[in-house]
Amino acid sequence: GAVVSQHPSWVICKSGTSVKIECRSLDFQATTMFWYRQFPKQSLMLMATSNEGSKATYEQGVEKDKFLINHASLTLSTLTVTSAHPEDSSFYICSALRDSHLNTEAFFGQGTRLTVV
Amino acid sequence: GEDVEQSLFLSVREGDSSVINCTYTDSSSTYLYWYKQEPGAGLQLLTYIFSNMDMKQDQRLTVLLNKKDKHLSLRIADTQTGDSAIYFCAESIQGSQGNLIFGKGTKLSVKP
Fold it and tell me: What is the count of residue pairs from A and B with beta carbons less than 8 Å apart?
């Protein structure tokens, strides 16, 4: 199957700093990627839809100025958590859509554990 | 390591029942989830079940869990064309701070 790579797998940062998380589709092009957040013992929450070459679409309640998304190429989307606070500590996971003439499939990254201290 | 497996495709006729199966390997799973993804959209949580439950029903959806065999199934009654989507099974591993392990997804096609 297709491979989606997230980097870093885990990161610890100080309050007030910014952290960038990368999501790469390694063997296919993805015009659409998704960013999710997961709180402990809860399911995924869709944060935003990232579209290559255009602005991301944010879900209700997600601050677009705090969670900056850039999808500058067909294989890379980045999520930057700006001015991080301890409540931003969470598990962030991305997925990328691969279109073919047969179907559309979603492939997930392995996730990034962010801890803000 | 942990692994979640699903069949890749399922095709049914409108009005029939659909059963999507999933197997997982980690016996310490605490929660098991079913997500739906429609074309061009993100994940939508359909339902979930605690590992100490055998069955959960929610309108047209029935989730069955066989913990002994590590087998999870999702039954959709009276399947409609709007149910056509990719369905992901996921498990939450105890002690992993809520990280989810996903299957690769089952594409359900509903024929009129």
Answer: 56
Q: Cβ contact (<8 Å) for A106 and B45?
A: no
User: Could you list the pLDDT tens digit for every one of the 117 residues in chain A?
Assistant: 567 889 998 999 999 999 999 999 998 898 888 898 877 655 567 788 888 888 898 888 899 999 999 998 999 999 999 999 999 999 898 988 776 655 556 677 878 889 999
Give me the half-sphere count of Cα atoms (radius 13 Å) on the Cβ side of residue A34: 22
Q: What is the nearest CA distance from B20 to chain A, expressed in angstroms?
A: 17
Write out chain B residues lying below 8 Å of A91, CB-based.
97-99
